[in-house]
Amino acid sequence: MPYELIDHTADIGIAVTASSVGELFETAAHAMFEQIADTRALTGWRRTRLTVSGIDREDLMINWLRELLFLWNGRQYLLKQARIENMANTELTARIWYDPFDRQTHEILNDIKAVTYHGIRVEKTDAGWTATVIFDV
């Protein structure tokens, strides 16, 4: 798996690795939604495009995940897939595929309330890219 869970008191943390920064953001999105719901039941039959900005890569990661979390908390959309189409240090454009929540089909695992700045890290390494993100549950 390209990410692992981090043990964190009263929160959920993920440590993500990827070969490119775009893949890092895609994997972080997928990892967050795997904590929210069983994503195996999703088909991704709806899609939309998002543009997100931040003051640096860490802020961009937080804003990206917050935007996706809003789609869940505000509209009850469950993310199946994200593809970063354009990526810069302070802005990204992505296409996402999602399903509207259906109580009969989808199992909710955790209630993520917020994406936090606590411990946020987005770094280039010799092996690729890594990120650490903590979610308030």
Low-pLDDT sequence parts: none
Structural class by secondary-structure content: alpha+beta
Biggest sheet details: 4 strands, antiparallel
For the terminal residues, how far apart are their CA atoms? 22 Å
What is the percent of helical residues? Answer: 25-40%
Please identify which CATH superfamily we are dealing with.
Archease domain
N-to-C series of helices and strands: EEHEHEEEE
Mean pLDDT comes to: 95
Explain how this protein is built.
It is a single chain. The protein has 137 residues and is an alpha+beta fold. The protein has one domain: 3-Layer(bab) Sandwich (Archease, Possible Chaperone, Chain: A, domain 1). It is built from 2 helices and 7 strands, in the order E-E-H-E-H-E-E-E-E. The protein has helices spanning 21-36, 57-75; strands spanning 3-8, 11-18, 46-53, 77-87, 91-100, 114-125, 128-136. The strands form 2 sheets. It has a 4-stranded antiparallel β-sheet with strand order 1-2-7-6, covered by helices on one side. The protein has a 3-stranded antiparallel β-sheet with strand order 3-5-4. Helix 1 runs parallel beside helix 2. The two termini are 22 Å apart. The model has no long low-confidence stretch (mean pLDDT 95).
Task: Spell out the key features of this protein.
2 helices; 137 residues; single chain; 4-stranded antiparallel beta sheet; alpha+beta; Archease, Possible Chaperone, Chain: A, domain 1
